[in-house]
Every structure is written in C-alpha cells, then in structure tokens.
UniProtKB/TrEMBL annotation:
Protein's membrane topology: Multi-pass membrane protein
Species, as recorded: Fraxinus pennsylvanica
Membership in a protein family: Belongs to the TrkH potassium transport family. HKT (TC 2.A.38.3) subfamily.
InterPro entries for the chain: Cat_transpt, TrkH_K-transport
Annotated GO MF terms: monoatomic cation transmembrane transporter activity
Superkingdom of the organism of origin: Eukaryota
Key words, A-Z: Ion transport, Membrane, Transmembrane, Transmembrane helix, Transport
Compartments reported by the entry: Membrane
Pfam family membership, one: TrkH
An annotated GO cellular component: plasma membrane
Protein name: Sodium transporter HKT1
An annotated GO BP: metal ion transport
Length: 421
C-alpha cells in the first residue's frame, strides 16, 4: 500500500521532467478541474502549491477516461492505494466483530479465555490480526488446540487466512470489479485492463487470478482428503464428532500454506501428511497452475532479460538449493543431538522446522520427553518450540532462513544457470 502511494509521487516527478505539468498558481487563467465537475465526474486531487496536469479544454477532461491517458494512471493508482487500505480494515474489522459475537454466544469458548485470564477483546483483535497477517501467533499456550471443538470459531478464522494471503490478489481484483460497477468506473476499468502497467505485485491479470483460486482450492482439497483419510480415527482428533473432525481437518489444510495455526500436535500426525505440509509451506503464496499460452511479448521480454543477464547471476542458486544447504548446516550443528536423541531430532522434523521458517508458517513438531532414548528426569515437553532445543548456531541459521523466506521474491529466478538434462 505504501508503495502505491510512492508511485503517485514518481508519476508527478515524471510529468515535471517532461514539462507536462505546471504549478497551479503559475497560470491563474488555466482552467481548474472543478470547472468541469458539473459536466463529468472526475477524481482529481487539487493540492495547493503542488502540481496538477493543465487542462486546455473540456475534451481533455473527457479524454481522461481513455486508458492511454497518463493522468488516469495516476488516479487509478491512488484509487488502488485507498482500496487496499479499505480491504485490510474491512476484512479484519468483520473478523474481530465475528469473533466477539461468537465468544458472547458460545459459553464454552468464553470459558477457555476466562480460565486463562485473557480478555475477550484482546483475544479477538490479536488472533484476527495475527491470522490475517499469516503470523500464526495465538495468545494461548496451546495455539488453537483448546478451541478444537469450537468449529464456529475455526470457520471465522479460515477466511482470514485465505483473504490475507493466498487469495488476496483474487479478492482484490474482485473488489475493484465490484466498486467499478458503481464508483470509479474509469479507474477500475484501467486497473482491470492495464494490470501490467500498474506494476503492483498483488494485482494479477484476470485469467491468472481465476487459476490462482482454482489452485488454492485444489491444494486445500488434496490436504483435506489426505488428512481425513489418515487421521480420522487417530488420537489427534479423538473426542471430536464427525462435523468437528471435518472442520478441523479443513482448518489444518488451510493453515498448511502460510499461517501455521493448528488444532492438533503436529508431531503426532502421519509422516506422509508432514511431507505434504513441507511441500505446501515451500510454495510461494501466489503459486498457481496456469495452463495457458503466454503472451508473445512476455516471451520476448524474458528473452531480452536472459540475454542481458550478468555473469554473476549465473552463480546464484535456486531457492531449493539454499534450503538444502541450510538443512545440511543445521544437521551439522545438531549432529550430537541427532545421534543421542534421534526420534526428536529426526531429519524430517528438522526439515519441517526449516521449511516452516522459510515459508513463515510456524508449524513445529515440538519436543517430547517421551521420545527420548535416554530418559532425563529434568526434561520438560514443549510441543510449541522444537527449535528451542537447538544449539545457538542452529537458531542463528534458522533466523537467517526466516529472513530469506521473507525476501524470497528477489531471488525467484535464481538457479537458471543450471541445466538438468
């Protein structure tokens, strides 16, 4: 959102450098945008002592609805910036209100907070914002395990997970289309048709947005089927009825991509599901299956960028290569514990922790004293932090992986120098 507002200032600077804008006060006789408000609605920001395009005639105002007019690009980016702000506020406010209403109506959920000394408003705000931002922090020691039977609360949080992450581009485009029906028609039309010119990472073309929805729902369906088929009668879902198990499995599948909230102890579920979670956490949020013919111009641009690639870029590794290196380094730093405590410090658990850090998810298998080969009377089981048992060197590597995961978009094209034949 901040980047969108910065784009507006760049557009004005470009106009000034090209001599296409003048100061409002430099020419008192030049028509103002307000002179034409009774003829056509046009969203023009008039700021004293700043710059706006000079309008020579009414035809210039009418031409602002032409998507090739640079002034409509300025208005469209401004509109998109405020739309993103409204999107963030509306979705989270609805989520917080829904959680508060649910806690007021369902005594069992409210009793959990009362026993833990948590205020209802604090829990609602903290949990919804954390879920929407894909942070996964919940102000309870057991994450969402204590609410495994509160299916209504899980239903409220599931849209927050999707709308704040994997489905954000699709619903942002849908919001533009809806508002364009009644308000800001010119700006909405420009954003929907000139997506590439806006250069906003989260605004995808229409076809791409549709396939993104299909891909996200497809991954959720696969995870739901896999989880239900292997964990339906397991101890992880014991005590839940059929409806609660189904909603709980859906909640786990949705959170496997980026949020990391859980109603079960991750270490108790089947290894096959853990491997599936690893794959889901590795995938970037906007991963989509896009079986359409690419634009020829796009292929030409890619070829030009390929030809202009600097020599140093050929030695940049792919995302997966760096992750393998970090897993190997952590296995080296924790080699003593892997030998003495192989059930807790398994390679699968370490891999899950590393990929979870890379995807900024937060899933962890925790640490169980029951899995120790040599029992330690001073041991304390902690399901919520397996990395807490790592060495300082291993924790440093994991911190690096977290930053690397947040900044992965700057290296998505790495590893192109390698050809696997």
């Amino acid at each position: 959102m901040v980047g969108l507002h910065m784009k507006r200032s760049k557009i004005i600077k470009a106009w000034k450098s090209e001599g296409r804008v003048t100061s409002v006060d430099s020419d008192p006789t030049s028509p103002r945008p307000s002179d034409f408000l009774d003829q056509i609605e046009l969203s023009i920001v008039t700021i004293p002592d700043l710059v706006v395009p000079r309008i020579e005639s009414q035809n210039d105002v009418l031409s602002s609805y032409n998507t090739n007019n640079p002034f409509i690009r300025y208005n469209s980016i401004k509109f998109l910036g405020f739309l993103v702000l409204g999107y963030l506020l509306v979705i989270q406010i609805i989520g917080i209100a829904s959680v508060l209403i649910y806690l007021a109506l369902i005594s069992s959920a409210k009793d959990v907070l009362r026993k833990k000394g948590l205020k209802t408003l604090t829990f609602a705000i903290f949990t919804v914002v954390s879920t929407f931002a894909s942070c996964g922090f919940v102000p309870t020691n057991e994450n969402m395990m204590v609410f495994s039977k509160n299916s209504g609360l899980l239903w409220i949080l599931i849209p927050q997970v999707l709308l704040g992450n994997t489905l954000f581009p699709s619903f942002l485009r849908f919001s533009i289309w809806v508002l364009g029906k009644k308000f800001k028609k010119a700006e909405a039309n420009y954003l929907l048709k000139k997506t590439a010119e806006v250069k906003y990472l989260h605004l995808l073309p229409g076809m791409h947005s549709s396939f993104l929805v299909a891909t996200v729902l497809g991954f959720i369906f696969i995870g739901l089927i896999l989880f239900c088929s292997m964990e339906w009668n397991s101890a992880a879902l014991s005590g839940l009825n059929t409806y609660q198990k189904l909603v709980g499995a859906l909640f786990q599948s949705v959170n496997a991509r980026h949020t990391g909230e859980t109603i079960v102890d991750i270490s108790t579920i089947a290894p096959a599901i853990l491997v599936f979670f690893v794959v889901m956490m590795y995938l970037p949020p906007y991963t989509s299956f896009l079986p359409v013919k690419r634009d020829p111009q796009w292929q030409i641009d890619c070829q030009e960028r390929k030809n202009q690639r600097r020599v140093g870029e050929n030695f940049i590794l792919s995302q997966l290569s760096y992750l393998l290196i970090f897993i190997i380094l952590i296995c080296i730093t924790e080699r003593k514990k892997i030998k003495e405590d192989p059930l807790n410090f398994s390679v699968l658990n370490i891999t899950l922790e590393v990929i979870s850090a890379y995807g900024n998810v937060g899933f962890t298998t925790g640490y169980s004293c029951d899995r120790q080969l040599k029992s330690d009377p001073t041991c304390v089981s902690k399901w919520y932090g397996f990395s807490g048992k790592w060495s300082d060197e291993g924790k440093v590597f994991l911190i690096i992986v977290m930053f690397f995961g947040r900044l992965k978009k700057f290296n998505m094209n790495g590893g192109q120098g390698w050809k696997l034949l």
